[in-house]
Automatic annotation (TrEMBL):
Entry's Gene Ontology molecular function annotations: enzyme inhibitor activity
Family matches, as CDD domains: PMEI-like_2
InterPro entries: Invertase/methylesterase_inhib, Pectinesterase_inhib_dom
Annotated TM spans: none
Domain Pectinesterase inhibitor per the UniProt entry, residue ranges: 20-153
Signal as UniProt keyword: yes
Source organism of this protein record: Arabidopsis arenosa (Sand rock-cress)
Keywords: Signal
Name this protein carries in UniProt: Pectinesterase inhibitor domain-containing protein
Length: 159
């Protein structure tokens, strides 16, 4: 390959990478496992920091709602108790994640979002073990997907 050919190939590759990057910024949800849910959550945000912030805030709102539902359960032991505890923990982790975005601390952001993801997964597992496939179990599944999307978006956050 000639030097000129290598330069042309490098320039073409760089343009493709730049185009791919601008595409992901035009739609940050392309990095998520649940893009339709992500797009509905971030409501057209193209700034990745703002999109991640909006996604986390929506997840906190939904977590609060799921916690309220779990608190109304007549049987508040076993899986429900585990979910209540984990919803509280997830909320705290998400609150820390919002601070991490403001401080441009991508490392801590990923840790706190991963912890929230684990909280929702633990709730789902606890409900599965009790064989209580109910609104709390279903809520935990949606919250897990939303947290997974937040974690995916966080990989785009500028550090």
């Amino acid at each position: 390959m000639t030097v000129l050919g290598a330069i042309f190939l490098l320039a073409a590759t760089s343009r493709q990478n730049a185009a791919a990057l601008s595409l992901s910024l035009a739609d940050p949800c392309t990095v998520s496992d649940f893009p339709a849910l992500c797009r509905g959550t971030i409501k057209g945000q193209t700034n990745v920091n703002a999109a991640t912030d909006v996604a986390i805030r929506e997840l906190m709102k939904r977590t609060r709602q799921a916690k309220e539902i779990a608190e109304k359960e007549l049987k508040r032991d076993g899986g429900v108790a585990t979910c209540l505890s984990n919803f509280n923990s997830a909320f705290d982790n998400l609150d820390k994640a919002l601070t991490n975005i403001k401080e441009n601390d991508g490392f801590s952001l990923n840790i706190n979002l991963s912890a929230a993801l684990t909280d929702y997964d633990t709730c789902s597992d606890a409900m599965k073990e009790t064989r209580e496939i109910n609104v709390i179990y279903k809520s935990a599944g949606v919250l897990y997907k939303m947290a997974d999307n937040c974690l995916a978006l966080s990989t785009l956050v500028k550090h």
